[in-house]
């Protein structure tokens, strides 16, 4: 009888331990490789056209949705002095009448507001229903794996992979994240995403003095321009 009780006790202990490990694993945030990251994030990234008053192209770059109700981010130098903007998503959808909510030419950050989605992209309430990335709430660290997505050419989004070389470097009087994720012309304004799928920064440019080291706008600089509901 004592042996039976002991066996039952051991079994209950094993089940309790198993339950703990299952809960612990469930609580761990999922991480993604490059293929999985692109599948999850690409619909939130768009080709951004900065247009003159006569609709000729002034500049082009990349933007990223950071809320389902139409808030997006990009780099200021992409949209500087443009008369109006047009976003082109990977599914071919074009969105115009984009409002500039805030810019900071010193940090190169810019926040946009896209109009409410229509047709198949609208929610049941008729409001915007954009796919968006979660915004990371903490600073990046040395050596973290990150991904960059952007449009070096229209209709040609790409993803690159690298690490955080430095979470904070003063470049021309501005704090910048440095990353080895490859950046091509046209990717400015696009997202730099951590391995959990969170927006960790916005592509700003490249280093002329360091090969294969690129500049990223930290989230704290972008967050200062965001509406309170998005922060």
Automatic annotation (TrEMBL):
Coiled coil: none annotated. The keyword Cytoplasm does not apply. Residues 1-24 form the signal peptide. InterPro entries: Peptidase_S1_PA (IPR009003), Peptidase_S1_PA_chymotrypsin (IPR043504), Peptidase_S1C (IPR001940). Keywords: Hydrolase, Protease, Serine protease, Signal. PANTHER family: PROTEASE DO-LIKE 5, CHLOROPLASTIC (PTHR43019:SF23), SERINE ENDOPROTEASE DEGS (PTHR43019). This is Trypsin-like serine protease.
């Amino acid at each position: 009888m004592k042996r039976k009780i002991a066996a039952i006790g051991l079994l209950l202990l094993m089940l309790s331990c198993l339950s703990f490990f299952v809960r612990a694993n469930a609580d761990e945030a999922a991480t993604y490789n490059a293929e999985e990251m692109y599948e999850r994030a690409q619909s939130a990234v768009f080709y951004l056209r900065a247009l003159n008053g006569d609709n000729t192209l002034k500049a082009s770059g990349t933007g990223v949705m950071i809320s389902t109700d139409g808030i997006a981010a990009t780099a200021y130098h992409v949209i500087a002095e443009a008369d109006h903007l047009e976003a082109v998503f990977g599914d071919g959808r074009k969105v115009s009448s984009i409002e500039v909510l805030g810019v900071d030419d010193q940090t190169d950050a810019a926040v946009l507001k896209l109009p409410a989605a229509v047709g198949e992209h609208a929610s049941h309430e008729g409001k915007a229903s954009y796919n968006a990335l979660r915004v990371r709430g903490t600073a990046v660290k040395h050596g973290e794996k990150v991904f960059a997505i952007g449009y070096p050419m229209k209709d040609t989004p790409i993803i690159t992979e690298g690490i955080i070389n430095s979470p904070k470097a003063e470049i021309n009087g501005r704090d910048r994240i440095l990353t080895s994720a490859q950046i091509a012309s046209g990717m400015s304004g696009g997202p730099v995403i951590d391995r959990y799928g969170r927006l960790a920064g916005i592509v700003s440019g490249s280093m002329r003095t360091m090969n294969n080291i690129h500049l990223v706008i930290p989230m704290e600089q972008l967050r200062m321009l965001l509406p309170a509901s998005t922060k």
